[in-house]
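Batch job 17 of 40 flagged for manual review because the log was empty.
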Amino acid sequence: MPESQIHPTAVIDPSARLGAGVVIGPYCIIGPDVELGDGCWLQNHVTLCGPSRIGARNKFYAYTSIGQQTQDLKYAGEPTWLEVGDDNVFREFCTVNRGTLPHTKTTVGSHNNFLAYSHIAHDCVVGSHVIFSNNGTLAGHVTVEDHVILGGLTAVHQFCRIGQHAITGGCSKIVQDVVPFTIVDGNPARARGVNMVGLQRHGRSEAQIRALRQAYKTLYRSKLNISQALEQLRQETADPDLEHLITFVAGSQRGIVGAGRE
């Protein structure tokens, strides 16, 4: 691994721990209790605050602010945390906040791409292989599963969940849970169909996609209520994707995004 490169204008707290081969550009600030993994790259004017544990090969572009304290007014200065995985990209002006209550944390997985002005608030859990388009915004306590795409200017209400392989249209307002494998769009968002292109790109077979399309029709196009629809789906197949969809919907506390025109 190449030697680390630290610009002389960077300010690094003595308690910060830097991995091998990091690049710290001009005017970056790394605060106390930050652990930065091997091969991370900070362009310029990047701020990393702690306590934070950041994995390897993450890229931080200009003016990102990662690990700042929560914006929740209940916060009283307790130690809270941020954990970030490997191989993420944080574009210009991205912000990620730590948890709120003592010893709580915000968690970000690996191989994610957060475009300019994205925001991840306190106590969120973001999976892996996720894309936030510009200004994708999470309020507190949001869960985003793997392979999700947030359209530009999407805003997600606190405590909502976005299921795996879901995609939101630009400027969508999310106030309930987004069912896995679906497309939602609108203000407020409405379900528009199954994310067929995304599923095909990730290797789902025609039979698997067909099963999810049928599940979508059972949830959104039949005259069954949610409990009845789930009961019917449980009797149809043992496909892992369908099982995940059933478990996700059954565990919803805020309800699921309603139906709209496909």
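Reviewer: the log was empty due to a logging misconfiguration, but the result itself is present. The two ends are 50 Å apart (CA to CA). Unflagging and moving on to job 18.
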